[in-house]
Structure formats: C-alpha cells, structure tokens
Amino acid sequence: MKREGYLVEGTCGRFVGPLLVAIFCASSVLPSYTAAETAISAPQDVQVFDTPSDGGGSLTVQWTPASWDSSELRYQVLLGDASSTDPSTFTVMAEFPANTKYVKDTETVWWTRDVDKTWHHVVLRTAKDIEIKDGTSYAVSVATVRDDQRIFTPVIVATPSPDWFNWNQLNNLIIAISFGGLIFYTISHAKRNEIFLRRIPGLDAVDEAIGRATELGKPVLYLTGAHDLHDPSTVAAAVILGKVAKRAALYETELMVPHREPITMAVCQEITKQAYLEAGKPDLFKEDANFFITSDQFSYAAAVDGIMLRKKPAANFFMGHYFAESLLLTETGASTGAIQIAGTDADHQLPFFVTTCDYTLIGEELYAASAYLSKEPVQIGTLRGQDIGKAVILTAIAVGTVLATFGAVTGAEWPQIILDFLSDVK
Amino acid sequence: MIFLRRQLPLLITLVAGLLFAAQYYVPHPASEQMLTSATKWLQIIGGFALVLGVTSLFHLHAVKIRRQEAGWGYSLVLYAGMLGTIAVGLWADGKESIEGVMTSFGWVYNYMMVPLQGTMFAILAFFIASAAYRSFRARSREAAVLLVAAVIVMMGRVPLGEYLVPLSGDVASWILNVLNASVRRAILIGVSLGAIALSFKIIFGVERSYLGGGKE
Amino acid sequence: MTFPERMLKIDRRIIFLVIGLCTLLPLLYPVGLPIKISSEVRGVYDHIESLPEQSVFLLSIDFDPASKPELYPQAIALLRHAFRKNLRVITMTLWVSGTGMADQIVTQVAKEMSKEYGTDYAFLGWSPGGQAVIINMGQDLYSAFPSDYGGRPTKELAVLNGVRNLKDVGYMVDLGAGKPGVEEWYVFGKDKYKFELGGGCTGVMAPGLYPLLRSGQINGLIGGLRGAAEYEILIDQKGQAVAGMDAQSATHIAIIVLVIICNVFYLSLRRAARAQGQAG
Fold first, then answer.
1. Strand, helix or coil at B212?
2. Ranges of each domain in chain C
3. pLDDT interval class at A10 (50, 70, 90)
C-alpha cells in the first residue's frame, strides 16, 4: 500500500516536475508569440490632418511606433466617407510592413516637422478607386494587421485643402531674397565707392591678338555664342565686343561678327557703332560688320568655317555659350594659324576650347572680364555680390567637411545634428 | 513712344518676374493654373518664333540675291532647299511615313538631313585627334597633369584600354566621379550664382541690354 | 627642318587618315573585347528592373540626327528593356529635328517586340516650348499633348489610363544631346513633380552630369556609346553600341599613341634646344 501511495505520489511528482520544466522551457523559447498576442493593439496617438504646404487633395496620417513593429505585422491605412463609422467598410489606401514608412524617410525639414522622425508617416492621395477632393471630409482609420486579425483605431475625420505657401521651401526663399538683397547692396556700394578688381590675365591676350591682326593686315573674327541676350554669357560677350571693337577701330583693323540670333545682332551693332564713335573713327564703322547667318547649329558652324578659310582672320574670339560646334569652329581657326581666345561658361565645351585656343576664360572669368572692361558699377557690384555668395557656400562646405570627418573619426553624434541642419537649410 | 519702348517692357518684366518667382513657393491650384496658362502662351509664342526665324532668313537671302552680292548663288541654293522642303512637308502633312511607307518628306529627312547632320558631328572625331596631337604637349607641369589625366581617362573608357591596363578603368572612374564631379560642381555653382544675379537685375530693371539700343 | 620638327608639324590629313582607318577596320573585323559595367549605367537598369508590370515609363528622345550614333543605341536598348518588362511606354521628344527619327526608333522596337500601339506604347511627338512643355506635362499631360504624333486624341489611348500628369509616371529617362535635356527635365520636372529620373547623354556631356548623379538628382546615367554598350550587355542583346566599342577602342589607343609620339618629339626638340643653348 505504501508502495502504491508512493507510486501515486511518485507518479504525480514524476510528471509534475517535468511538466513544470516543460512549461518553463516553452515559455522561455516562445516568449514573443505569447507576449505579442497580449501586447498588440491598435496604433496609438494617431493624427490625421490636411497635408501641409501642398496643393490640396491629400491627407497625412501619423502615429507613434510600437514596440512590436516588425516585418511580420502590417499596418493598413483606410479611408471612407465622413459619415461612416465602421472602419471595416473603408477602402484600404495603403498597406505595408509595420517596420517601414517613417517620418525620417520623407523629405520634410525640421521647421515643418511636428513629431519625432521615428513616427510612422503616410500620405493619402487620390488613387484609382477613390478620389480625395478638397473641401470634402473623409474618415480615416489605421489598423494593425496580423494574419486575418485587424485591430482598428477610432475613426478620425479630416478635410484636405490647398495651401498658399510651401513652408518646406522657406529656406530657399530666404536664401534667394538674401542673395538678391546682397547683389543690390553691392551694386549700390559700387556706385558710391571704388571696388578693386584684379586684372583678368586673358585680357592682355585680347590686346595682343588685335595687335597681331593689325600687323598682319588681316581681319578680326568675333563670335558671341549660341544663346540670346537672356543668357549672362551673351551679355558678357557683347560687353567684351565693345572693347574689341574700340581697339579694332583705333588700329583700323577690319572686324567681322557673324551672329546666330537677330536680336543679339541688333544689340551688338549698336555696341560696335558706339565703340567706333568713342574711338573717334565713326567713318570706319560698317553696318554689315555684324551680320546674321542662321540659327541652325551646324549650318552656322559651316558658314563660319567657310569665312575663316576664305578670309583667314588673324585673331578669332569665341565669347559666349557654345555647344558641339565649338570644336568645329576652333579647330578650323587653329588650322588657319589664327591666334584664338575663348571665353565660355559652357563647361561641356571647355576641354575643346582649352586644347585649341591660346587662351580661355573659364566660366565666371568671362563675367569678370566684362565687368573689368566696362567698369560699370552694376557689373562690378554684381561680381562682388557673387563673390560673397561663393564665400558663404565655401564656408558651409568647409564647416560641413570638417564636421563630417570629425564625426566619422570620433564616432560622435553631435556633428550629425549640425550636418542635418545644413542639409535641410540647403 | 519712350514709354512703349522702355517703361512698359520694364514694367511687364517686373510684374511677370515677381509673379512667377513667387509662384514657385505657392502650391495652391490657382498658382499652378496661372503657370499652366503662361507656359501654354510660351508654347504658342515658341511656335511663332519659328515663323519669325524662317521669315527673317527668307528676307536676308532675298536681299542677297536681288543685289547679287558675293555668294548669292548659295542663297539661291538655300531658297531652293527651304521651299522644296516646305512643299514636300506640306504635301506629306508633316509625316515622315504613312502606314509604314516613307513619304517624300521622310526621304528628304532620312537621306539628306540625317547624313548631313551626322557628317558634321562625325568631323569632331577627326578634329579632336588633330587638336590632341597639336595641344597635348608637356609644356609645363599643368600641361603634363592634363596630358596624364587625358591618357588615363581615354584608356579607362574603352574595353581595349581596360584589357591592356586593368587599373585604368577604376582610375578613370575615380577621376570622373571625384575630381571631375567636384570641379564641375564648382563651375556650376559659380555660373548659377551669376545667372541668379542676372535674373534679379533683369526683373528689377537694373540690366536692360536685352531691350536693345544704346545707353541712355 | 629636322625630323622631329617635321613630325610635330605633320599634315593633319595624315592624322585624319589614321583615325579613319582605326574606325573602319574594327567595324569590318570586330574583336569583341569584354566590357565592364559601371554603377552609373547599372543604376538605370536596376531601376527599370524593379518596376512592376504595367508601370508607366516615359522616355524623352531629345536628340537630333547629329547625335544618333551615340544616343540611338541607348534608345533601342532602353525600349527593348522596357517592352520586355511589359511596362507602359510613353515616348516623346522636345527636339523638332529629331521627331522623325524618334518615331522610327519607337516603331521599329515596338514591332520587334510585338507591341500594340495605343495599348502598350504611344509616341506623343513634339510640342514647341522646351521647358514649357515639361511644366505643362507636370500639370496636365493631355493639355501639353492633346493628340499624339498620329493625330489620335491622347485621352483615348489605353496606355495613358490613370496618367494625368508627370506625378503619375513611374520612371522617366531623358536621352539628351543638349538643351533641353537632362538638366531641364530635372529643374522643371523632377524637382517640382517628384518622379524618378534617369539620364542618357553623349560622351561629351556625361562628365558635366556627374554632379547630378552624385547628389542623387538622377539615379543613373548612360554616357555615350560606352554607356549604350554596357546597357546592351545588361539586357543581353548586343547591338550597334557593342559593335562600335572596338572602333572606339582603336581610335582612343590611336590618339594616345599619337600624343605619346608627339611628346617624344617635343621633348627631344626641347632637349636639343637646351643643349644648343648651353653650348652657345
């Protein structure tokens, strides 16, 4: 009997112990499933509002991240009629893994961000089946989804509407106005004070080229580029033409200026006439020194090449903006033995000008040259304003580089905050 | 008259310039509608500019032919080409092919324009070779650096170069992605600042050279 | 004149002849060297590969016959890839002189891939205005192109179902030979209407577009004939670009050899002049 009792007790003891151990092991091996089933709920702190700084027709939905966010779970954002209160009848507008779609993935800037970057963020726009109209209220709900189970948040009603100002571009507006103000300030400063401008080395080459043409008794060829007068390079080319024309008038050297644009031709004609007047040689001015050929790229290049081969100018000037015709022009000019000076902001063509011309004014040197020659306060002041703008950009680049390097080397986090600030402000 | 030639254009430039600069910051549909209307007008004016260009060309060469100036024969050729192309283009309703069959306009396009344009562009290959032979000389330290970089990039951008010198591809890629990109960016920043400054000056009437005419 | 001096002043026509032979002979007797794929070209390829079927792919063929040798193979390869992925292909051009050529390219590849006009693809043609067209398309595509190149109303084309403006485009690639080109599509298109943009351009223009690539403004760049050859390798359909790479290889090597020869003579002349100067 005792033995049976022991057996009963022993049996119970024998099974309870291992059973308890088994339960303990199971709970330690499978804690998440057991814990998730109890912990999962509807998304918290859901906010639904009209998307700010847009043209209307969209709603933004945000909510806090949850501890259970993972790729195994999903979120659904549902949209329905404002009068409806049952989210299960709503249309699914977005569905995604629960560990995706955060504020940090969007292109928002810190001054328009109301919530932390770790919050979930979805923008609802018109889709195939449902149109989101301005002024119409809509009901939105967010659901946590696991397999067939959906847990909805309470319905929130919001109304999309268009906005009159894009606050995300505020930095752009401030920088633009600041730079504009800077330009006007430096222009007015230049009108009242003398601003030093260092001599552009290419300008010595201009005088030398015209002198050479005079010695050889050959004409000077001057091109103003492919663009019209809305382009700063063409404006600069026209200003430099004034100087070249004046020098050519003084030396009584023939000047030829073929054009691609009728309006540019008309303006350059006036500039040339003025230059001859200032040189005291108005009788030497020829109306047809400036002539229109064609606006077609390669036809123009072929025509100018013909002029170079027939007339054999001793000095060729290529000022302004050029495209693929640049090498056709400069190589033909080089084959005739002419001295060639180029000035362009067309960075694609710079290599060709550099290899085939005796001197090249690169990018802003063209604008600087025209400012130096004209001595106009407007031109000089603009140049000074641009220089200050570049100095600001250079400083930002230098600071950013140092911070990024410091952050990478030391592993510190605070440089990233400043870098994010600079990134948003750009 | 001065008002029509000077003040009015400046006023239009100021109003339009400020309006469309502000438009960029206003996302409201009314602003977008205004931009759409303006760009439609731009497209219409762009179409008229074509007509203006052709008329100007006709007039210029008509004068040359009438006065029998030097090279007036070429003007006659130009006239024949322009009128012929316009005629066949109108005949074919501007289509290069109709239901797979080439029209006469398509013939002019495919057998005259395409080869002529291709030829002009193809000349560049020969010209760059002769320019390189003449200019890529190690006259100075800078010229030597230019020469070495050019050789590396030329090698690295073709399969034969990469086959002969396997490292050239990676070095060429580094030159393009690091050195070239940073320098281009610098030129781009400078040129862009210049363009922005000019835009401000034109909008506010400080720069008036685009109106034509001499100084006031 | 000494031999080095004569060589330095060599007639340009001899150089032209050398280049001509280096271009012609590899085209007649191809070698077929391996071509390494660059990350820039892979960027465009990978993005198109990632697009689901029936996504809208916009291809703007912005070049004229002058740039055909470099950009035509790019267009062919991109269209073949897009059609193979069963994307809805919409093509157009901003260059009036390239309209006929663009139409030919699209028709040719569509026929080859057995695609139906209006359902699988459409060619909108050309509209004047350059960047104005891009802005218009960003607002309302049907306003910018009320009819396609053949005169059919664009609203009736099934391929444009659900496409109201550029915001509805899945991916856009611009093959540009100048202005308007890739930069204009970014400034007036992607920056405003936020669609993904890739670029293709001539070899000359490619270095100038690297800043846009490095900053993520475009997600890929097919540069010149080399880029087209890489793309043909990626889609496993070799064409004109791969065939042209042998010629390009030979020409590049020829120019390098000429430059080296020129420098050898130049340096020898300089040395001789220095020695003469010292002796004198």
1. coil
2. 3-30+252-279, 39-238
3. very low
| Mean pLDDT along residues A98-108 | 86
Residues 6+ apart with CB under 8 A from A211: A251
Query: Do the chains contact at A324 and C204, CB–CB below 8 Å?
Result: yes
Flag whether pLDDT at A421 surpasses 80. Answer: no
pLDDT, position A347: 83
What are the residue ranges in chain B where pLDDT is below 50? 214-216
Count of all residues that appear for chain B in the document? 216
Q: Which residues pair with A124 in a beta bridge?
A: A59
- Residue of chain C with shortest Cα separation from A352: C204
Selecting from C33, C132, C250 the residue whose C-beta is nearest the C-beta of B163 gives: C33
Does ipTM top 0.85?
Answer: no
Q: Which tens digits make up the pLDDT trace of A15-38?
A: 555 555 554 444 444 444 444 455
Domain boundaries defined on chain B: 138-206
pLDDT at A330: 95
H/E segment holding residue B101: strand B101-102
Per the CB < 8 A criterion, the answer to whether A46 and A142 are in contact is: yes
Q: Which chains touch B (3 or more CB pairs under 8 A)?
A: A, C
Six-digit token pair at A117?
């970057």
Cα separation, A325 vs C177, in Å, equals 13
* Eight-class DSSP state of B216: -
What's the 3-state SS for chain C? CCHHHHHHCCCHHHHHHHHHHHHHHHHHCCCCCCCCCCHHHHHHHHHHHHCCCCCEEEEEEECCHHHHHHHHHHHHHHHHHHHHCCCEEEEEECCHHHHHHHHHHHHHHHHHCCCCECCCEEEEEECCCCHHHHHHHHHCHHHHCCECCCCCEHHHCHHHCCCCCHHHCCEEEEEECCCCCHHHHHHHHHHHHCCCEEEEECCCCHHHHHHHHHCCCCCCEEEHHHHHHHHHHHCCCCCHHHHHHHHHHHHHHHHHHHHHHHHHHHHHHHHHHHHHHHHC
Put simply, the answer to whether A385 touches B197 (Cβ < 8 Å) is yes
Residue B19: how many CB atoms within 10 A of its CB? 14
**From residue C67, how far is each of C75, C200, C221, C246 by CA, in Å?**
12, 12, 16, 19
Q: pLDDT band at A196, cuts 50/70/90?
A: confident
Residues of A with CB below 8 A from B132's CB? 355
The answer to whether the bond into A282 is cis (omega within 30° of 0) is no
> CB B96 to CB C255 under 8 A?
no
Q: Does A185 touch chain C (CB under 8 A)?
A: no
Residue A348 near residue C208, CB atoms below 8 Å: yes
Under an 8 A CB cutoff, do C254 and B129 touch?
yes
CB–CB of A179/B196 below 8 Å?
yes
d(CA C186, CA C198): 9
CATH architecture of C39-238: 3-Layer(aba) Sandwich (3.40)
State phi, psi for A416 to the nearest 5 degrees: -65, -30
Tens digit of pLDDT for each residue in A108-158? 788 888 888 899 999 998 876 788 999 999 999 999 998 888 999 999 999
| DSSP single-letter state for residue B113 | I
